[in-house]
Design a protein that fits this description.
With 256 residues, the protein is an alpha/beta fold. It has two domains: 2-77 and 155-255, Rossmann fold (3-Layer(aba) Sandwich); 87-154, no CATH class. Helix content is 43%, strand content 23%. The protein contains ten helices and ten strands. Strands 6-7-8-3-9-10 form a six-stranded mixed β-sheet, with helices on both faces. Strands 2-1-4-5 form a four-stranded antiparallel β-sheet, with helices on one face. β1 (2-11) and β2 (14-24) form a beta hairpin. It is globular and about 50 Å long. The two termini are 26 Å apart. Bound molecules: adenosine-5'-triphosphate. Adenosine-5'-triphosphate is lined by residues 11, 14, 16, 34, 36-42, 195. Involved in beta-(1-->2)glucan export. Transmembrane domains (TMD) form a pore in the inner membrane and the ATP-binding domain (NBD) is responsible for energy generation. This is ABC transporter ATP-binding protein. InterPro entries: AAA+_ATPase, ABC_AA/LPS_Transport, ABC_transporter-like_ATP-bd, BCA_ABC_TP_C, P-loop_NTPase. It comes from Bradyrhizobium symbiodeficiens.
Length: 256
C-alpha cells in the first residue's frame, strides 16, 4: 500500500533523513522508533505533505504523492495525528471532529462529516453528544480527540505521531489497544511513531528503527529488540522495558 524509496530531506547543509526506504503492507501496523532528532517526525511530515522531500519517492496506493499539498494527500486517504494536540477550543468536541471530516474527506457534505464524527468519537470512546466541551479533556482525552479527527478523514493509512506522550501506564496500554482495534475493526493500515518502545513493541507487526536520519534496523519486534545496533542506540533509556515487551511479543506469537 505504501512504498517509500530513497527518501532524503536536507535542511540547508544538514541531512535530517538520509536515503530511507521502506514499505507498508495493507492491514499492517508498522512501528517507527528512534531517539530524539533521528528523523521520525520529518518522515511523517513528508508522508503527510507538510514537508516536500529533497529527493526520493512515496508511492501510496499506486500513485506518487511525494511533494503533494497536505489536503491532496489527506483526500487520497492518508490521515495523521499530531504529537501536540491543538484542537479549536471554541468548538465542541463533536464540532472539532466533524470539521476534520468535512475538509478531510474532501466531500464537503455536512451530513457525511457528522456521521463520520459520530463513528470516530464512538471508536475512540469520547462522548458523541454535540455539546461536550474540549475544556474537560485531559491528556488522554486530547489524544483520543486527535485520533478521532484523523479517523473522521476516512484514512486508509493512519500516521499516528507519538500517541502516548503525557499518558500514564494504564492510559498507554489503552491507547495501544485502541490503535490495534482501529486496525482490526476498520482495516486501517497504521504507521506509529513513538519514543516509548515498550508498549509499541507489544502491538506492532514490524518495527523500523532510525538513528541520525538513517534506517539502522527493521523487522519483527522480537528480532529488532535484540539487534545490537538498536540496543546501543537505546542503551540507558528504555532498553529493559523494550526487552520485556519483545519477550511478551514472542510469547504471544508462540501462543497464537
Ligand atoms: N525545519 C527544520 N529546520 C532545520 N532542522 C530541522 C527542521 N526540522 C527538523 N530538523 C532537524 O532534523 C532532525 C530530525 O528531526 P525530527 O523532528 O524529524 O526528529 P524526531 O526523530 O521526530 O525527534 P523527536 O523524537 O524529538 O520528535 C533534528 O536534528 C532536527 O533538529
Amino acid at each position: 500500500m505504501l512504498e517509500v524509496s530513497g527518501l532524503v530531506k536536507r535542511f540547508g547543509g544538514f541531512t535530517a533523513v538520509n536515503n530511507v526506504s521502506f514499505r507498508v503492507d495493507q492491514g499492517e501496523i508498522l512501528g517507527l522508533i528512534g531517539p530524539n532528532g533521528s528523523g521520525k517526525s520529518t518522515i511523517f511530515n513528508m508522508l503527510s505533505g507538510t514537508l516536500a522531500p529533497t529527493s526520493g519517492s512515496i508511492v501510496f496506493d499506486g500513485s506518487e504523492i511525494a511533494g503533494l499539498a497536505p489536503h491532496r494527500i489527506i483526500n487520497s486517504g492518508v490521515g495523521r495525528t499530531f504529537q501536540i494536540p491543538r484542537p479549536f477550543r471554541r468548538l465542541t468536541i463533536f464540532e472539532n471532529v466533524a470539521l476534520a471530516g468535512f475538509y478531510g474527506q474532501g466531500r464537503h457534505s455536512r451530513a457525511r462529516a457528522e456521521e463520520a464524527a459520530e463513528r470516530s468519537l464512538a471508536m475512540v470512546g469520547l462522548p458523541t453528544d454535540r455539546h461536550a466541551s474540549v475544556d474537560g479533556l485531559g491528556a488522554a482525552g486530547l489524544k483520543k480527540l486527535e485520533l478521532a479527527k484523523a479517523l473522521a478523514t476516512a484514512p486508509k493509512l493512519l500516521l499516528a505521531d507519538e500517541s502516548l506522550g503525557g499518558l500514564d501506564e494504564t492510559e498507554m496500554d489503552q491507547a495501544a489497544d485502541m490503535l490495534r482495534n482501529i486496525r482490526d475493526e476498520l482495516g486501517i493500515t497504521i504507521i506509529w511513531v513513538e519514543h516509548i518502545m515498550g508498549v509499541l513493541m507489544r502491538v506492532v507487526d514490524r518495527v523500523m528503527v532510525l538513528d541520525h536520519g538513517e534506517k539502522i534496523s527493521e523487522g519483527l519486534p522480537s528480532a529488532v529488540a535484540g539487534d545490537p545496533r538498536v540496543i546501543e542506540v537505546y542503551l540507558g533509556t528504555d532498553a529493559e522495558t523494550t526487552q520485556a515487551a519483545a519477550a511478551e511479543a514472542r510469547r504471544r506469537a508462540g501462543g497464537a
